[in-house]
Fold:
Amino acid sequence: MYPPRITRYLIHPLLCRVNGYYRRMRTLGRDLERSEWWATEQLMDLQVQKLRTLLEEARRYSPYYKQLLQQAGLDPTHATHRDLAGLPSLDKSSLRTQFEEIVSRRYERDRLIQCSSGGSTGEPVHVLRSGEITPMLGAITERGYRWAGWFPGASHHKFWGAPMDVEAGTDSWRKRFIKEVYNKELVNAFMASEALFESYHVRHRSRPPALFESYADILYEFARYIEAQRLPFFGAAAIVSSAGTLHDFQRKLIVRTVGREIFNRYGCREVGNVAQECEAHGGMHINMERYIVEILNPDAEGVGELLITDLDNLAFPLVRYRIGDLGKLASEPCACGRGLVVLERVVGRTLDVIVTPDGRRISGVLFPRVFRDYPQIVLGQVIQNSLTEVEVRLRLQGNMTEDELAQLLERLRGAMGPEVAVKINFDAEIVVTPTGKYRTVISQLGGASA
Structure:
């Protein structure tokens, strides 16, 4: 492992001086270190200022929002949180059909960055953003790491879905340099298996990472493997769980096997990391400097649909975006003393794990990423009926060519292996949960997932 102190006190400060991105991210990070301790009212005042800027930009440069604001009779220069309720929410269907009308005309289209949703609710969508907001995304993520005790240079391992990042020889020398001096390791979560878990545990048990980051479902599978094999406690100093609901029973097992302190995080690819637990573990603090979170039509317990307004993405405004999850805001502030409002819990986004005959455990996050490459697929659902049989139910807008269908089948079979029979079904109904949510992956195997 590269000496963390050298990176923390020498290389990282130097990089922040000579590299514009790191310099900007460090400045924003310092701002966030101050603002997280502001009173909630002061943070809400900041939100109002940014909301007015967002709506004014949207009115001037986004045809979709210009019409919307005119119909609502809303003056952006005087908008407040209460005025948001007068605007209709933006669902995924509208985002797809109104995509071109939402894009801001002030930005050069070919310079915008496309970001696709993970499609955890079965509906992959695409959004755009400008490069100027990327440092803020990084600063918010690093604040969450800081809450978990991480600092630049401390070892950071990720079980993540980035195959191109973890395959040998695909990184540029700059990326390899960053990974080396910042002690980063990426493990392809889509290839998770007992063999991978065993190899990783053996390699790092003597020196576990300071920060272990993973999809919630794969993290739980890793914990189950450690317990089943009666392996020694892994001992990660801190764990960040993301991209899925972390249940209490999963947390209890993880703290017995992988690491004693877990920091749950909530977000999506369309907007970024919306909220995360701090060291007090009193719920997930909303990153109010960037996001407004509303609860639509809460029930008697305060649980309702989450609406997210991204205050920074002026190039592709997302106002009252229906992310597709249910959640609840905490009624009391966190014991840590931060003024950031707390998201008490999130209901949904549970992606089952596909188990293959050769023992691999494929994260449900993989399949939405495959589906989103085919614009005809509006909804996709994977149902595992046995170790050797998987049904893929698709709802289309338009037709898929024979070549596209063959390519899709090849990719799915390549992910699951030749022993798994994959059947495409265009006619069967998509299964929904009692709350009306789509689950991208449903496993019928007893004990494969919880």
Summary: Residues 121 and 439 are 6 Å apart (CA to CA). Confidence is low (pLDDT under 50) at residues 162-169. The first strand starts at residue 113 and ends at 116.
